[in-house]
Amino acid sequence: MIFRKFQLRPSYCAFVACLAAFSLSFGGLQPVVIAQAHWTLEGVLNQLNKSSKSFQSLKADIEHTKVTVVVNDKSTESGQIFVQRDDKMRIEFIQPDPRTILRTGNQVFIYNPKIKRVEEYDLGKHQSEVDQFLLLGFGTSGSEMEKGYKTEFLGEEELDKRLVLKLQLTPRSSELQKQITKVIIWIDETNWLPAQQQVFEAGSEDYLLMHYTNVERNAHLSDNEFKPHWPKGVTRVKPEG
Question: For the chain, which domains are there?
Answer without folding.
Answer: 4-221 (2.50.20.10)
